[in-house]
User: What shape does this take?
Amino acid sequence: MAKCGRRPVLDEIKRREILAILAVGCSRRVAAEYVACSPTTIQNTAARDQHFAEALRHAESQAEIGYQRSIQKAASQEKYWRAAAWALERRNPQDYARRPPDALTHKQVKEILAEIAAIIQEELTVAAYRKRILKRVGQVISSLGARGGRKPR
Assistant: This one.
């Protein structure tokens, strides 16, 4: 019995074109424009077809690995030290990325909040209020590590 319904938007030729475009480093949006579909169509097709989803991941990883190899090769030559710096900035932005001069680190924010908590403790005379406020400030301090993706040092 034949299946009812419409033909898939992404036939085998379009799927191969998408994979080739992704493998050279283009985005899914560019691949979708090239084969005249929406990026959502690519996503939906991958959700229905595990083999295509795996091929998409492989193609995208292939491009990223190629870029990383190029950066690593350039960075191995002293005259191209900026490639190494660029890779470090992107791989570990919390340690190496440039920050605006007035930006505060997680550590600095925690220190400021700790000072505010000490002031509250000293100045607020009603114990119940002081306890509730300090508990809330403590929760804010605790949540700072989770927001940055890892705990500050």
